[in-house]
Design brief:
Blueprint: E1 4-9, H1 16-26, E2 37-42, H2 45-55, E3 60-64, H3 81-85, E4 89-94, H4 97-102, H5 107-119, E5 123-128, H6 132-136, H7 140-151, E6 161-164, H8 178-190, E7 198-202, H9 210-214, E8 221-224, H10 231-238
Parallel strand pairs: 1-2, 1-8, 2-3, 3-4, 4-5, 5-6, 6-7, 7-8
Helix pairs in contact: 1-2, 1-10
Bound molecules: phosphoenolpyruvate.
Length: about 240
């Protein structure tokens, strides 16, 4: 059975008090959310601890936006998996295109982070997707196949979520057409050994397109950036029809 997973990626937005304000507005909406939907919030590291206290006993899961592959060590600025699990974090985004583009993340380091996350019981959300240039050059399928081959070496597919995030659709308002997202996600699924991996779509998901996206048979959820920052808008997304 494929699980529906809707995750909000807050990127580098929201202070601790802003995250508390968000929760006050958002939590009441979850009374309408079907219990089989997994709702995940991925705030900045500095918000995780306080949010963990608010969310204890709620249906929301906490996610981090990255994790290092070592358990500890002289890695200034990095965060290790045991630091996340001890405060109740359950998911972690790995290989987001912003990490690949701005912080030198490679398929090799993505693979190390995926394995470290799983070793410590975190569920990684692996992001893959093509640039506009790669899409226009007809390289989408090849690029995604290569990313999956390299990123998933020795990764347990029983404990994994994948997000198809076309880079040209992230933060641009230019959503990938839902049938096309469905097609690419089908292609991703065909390359997995476990057909039950949940595969999300991400890229300008909004309250006004979530119903159509979630109506697609291959799409098992969404990774949502901008529209997850505002309580009413993310509530409409998790309560899609
Ligand atoms: C993202 O950050 O993963 C994302 C998809 O952002 P947005 O929804 O703003 O396009």
């Amino acid at each position: 059975m494929r699980k529906i997973v809707i995750a909000g990626n807050w990127k580098m937005f929201k202070t601790r008090s802003e995250s508390e304000d968000f929760l006050r507005g958002f939590l009441p909406h979850l009374e309408e959310t079907p219990s089989e939907r997994e709702v995940v919030l991925c705030p900045p590291f500095t918000d995780l601890s306080v949010m963990s206290k608010y969310l204890h006993g709620s249906l929301i899961q906490l996610g981090a936006q990255n994790v290092h592959w070592e358990e500890n060590g002289a890695y200034t600025g990095e965060i290790a998996a045991p630091m996340l699990t001890e405060i109740g974090v359950r998911y972690v985004i790995v290989g987001h295109s912003e990490r690949r583009q701005y912080f030198g993340e490679t398929d090799a380091t993505v693979n190390l982070r995926l394995k470290a996350a799983q070793k410590h019981g975190l569920i990684p959300i692996l992001c893959v997707g093509e640039t506009k240039q790669q899409r226009d050059a007809g390289e989408t399928e090849k690029l995604i196949t290569t990313q999956l081959e390299k990123d998933l070496v020795d990764v347990d597919q029983n404990n994994l979520v994948i997000a198809y995030e076309p880079i040209w659709a992230i933060g641009t308002g230019d959503t990938c057409e839902s049938k096309e997202a469905n097609r690419v996600i089908g292609l991703i699924r065909s390359q997995l050994t476990n057909p039950n991996v949940s595969i999300q779509y991400g890229g300008s998901v909004k309250p006004n397109n979530i119903d159509e996206i979630m109506a697609q048979p291959e799409i098992d959820g969404a990774l949502v950036g901008g529209a997850s920052l505002e309580a009413d808008s993310f509530a409409r997304i998790v309560n899609y029809q």
